Amino acid sequence: MIDVLVIGGGNAALCAALMAREAGASVLVLEAAPKEWRGGNSQHTRNLRCMHDAPQDVLVDAYPEEEYWQDLLKVTGGLTDEKLARIAIKASSNCRDWMRGHGVRFQPPLSGALHVARTNAFFMGGGKALVNAYYRSAEALGVQIRYNAPVDSIELDGERFVAARIGSERIEARTCVLAAGGFESNREWLRDAWGQVNGQWIADNFLIRGTRFNMGTLLKFMIDAGADTIGDPSQSHCVAIDARAPLYDGGICTRVDCVSLGVVLNRDGDRFYDEGEDFWPKRYAIWGRLVAQQPGQIAYSVIDSKAVGRFMPPVFPGTRAHALPELARAMKIDEARFMNTIESYNAACRVGTFNHAVLDDCHTENLTPPKTHWAQPLDKPPYYAYALRPGITFTYLGLKTDPRAAVYFDGTPSENLFVAGEMMAGNVLGKGYTAGVGMAIGTAFGRIAGTQAALAARNVKGKHDHAIA
């Protein structure tokens, strides 16, 4: 019998599998996707948000625990479990050497418009390279891996794990780690979570920025089986992405990063939120939800030529025009309404010393909503517009857990069933997001879950051997 069964194939699952194997357990990983699509949403990631008290290898300056915590507190609006959040934060300070030991490489620190040279360590080759490195290491260590293996149910004895099922196939193990992701690919579940407006399902206009394989099958099974849950099903890592992005797996390249450098209008030609509220890596993930709340779930990021070169260029070119009325017509927004919004914004701009690398003093006055930083008139042609749709990366509804990563049933922790990654991220992320924190949560709790599962498997073996004796 296998000691540790890991259900899932992304970062958290692989961290769990590697830690369990290092602890001496036999490990089987069940990945729902075929080999070429393995890795879940982790294949689309780029970086890990890391706490550090002084400069460290690829990280400049310092990013202490308390600042990290305050950043998380701000984006979640307090909807976070501080104890679990601080576990992830502290773990992010010392996991990179372990990651390197399994083949992960980091690139030199970035500088410029992303503002993340201090806070985030970037993977050389991105998330796909990280996932491939972990799989190579797991295979070398003797971890068994099965692809095209979507678990649809598990067998429980009270709160104890007994076996997993793939259709009629039954797979027993002494312990189990659930790391099979959220339900972002399940359109019906998204519809239920978001509801309708004027007879139309809001979620029908969503694009799935992440993997197509996260249907939430195992999550729903666990909820129906009585596992304790946490989180709002409508909350997610939801980014405003290019409206022309593919339905699934668009990943990082579909993001549009010029929001803070211009204005964002809905289809009625109105602004609806402060584009300069905070640095983009701390705020980019609120814009998907904001766009989802607009008519038709669409918006338009509008910039002028002053912004070109100040942000990561999108994969798709924007709509270009030499005059603002021409741009309005190209986007099919009422020209008079569009021009009134832009002219009101331009008149309200109080330009000080523009600096996109700091929270500068360029702001608007007597304008609702305001633009707090980086406010400059849109007055230098040509002008550009990018149509935006909500892009769901991963959902936050998950299983309640504790510092041991145990699954709970009616307040009682399971002795041999653990959870990591997106299936428990809602404990830390009640809402909002800040760049790289998902990988920090998945890495921390994946490693904890793997360690605890290996320990629990030894205990089960010990009891069995004692009973035989």
Give a short summary of the structure.
This protein has 469 residues and is α+β, with helices and mostly antiparallel strands. The chain has helices at residues 11-22, 65-76, 82-91, 96-101, 126-141, 187-194, 217-224, 280-283, 287-292, 324-331, 335-348, 437-468; strands spanning 2-7, 27-30, 47-49, 120-122, 144-146, 153-157, 160-166, 169-178, 196-197, 200-201, 207-208, 229-230, 236-242, 263-266, 299-303, 319-321, 349-350, 363-364, 383-395, 398-399, 406-409, 412-419. The radius of gyration is 23 Å and the shape is elongated.
Number of helices: 12
- What's the shape? elongated
Query: Based on DSSP secondary structure assignment, what is the total number of beta strands?
Result: 22
Derived from helix and strand composition plus strand pairing, the structural class reads: alpha+beta
Outline the biggest β-sheet.
8 strands, mixed
Low-pLDDT windows of residues: none
**Average predicted confidence as pLDDT:** 95
CATH top-level class of the largest domain: Alpha Beta
- Span between termini: 19 Å
Number of domains: 2
Q: How much β-strand is present in the residues?
A: 15-25%
CATH superfamily of the largest domain: FAD/NAD(P)-binding domain
Helical percentage: 25-40%
- Kindly report the CATH topology of the largest domain: FAD/NAD(P)-binding domain
CATH architecture of the largest domain: 3-Layer(bba) Sandwich
Rounded to an integer in angstroms, the radius of gyration calculated over CA atoms is 23 Å
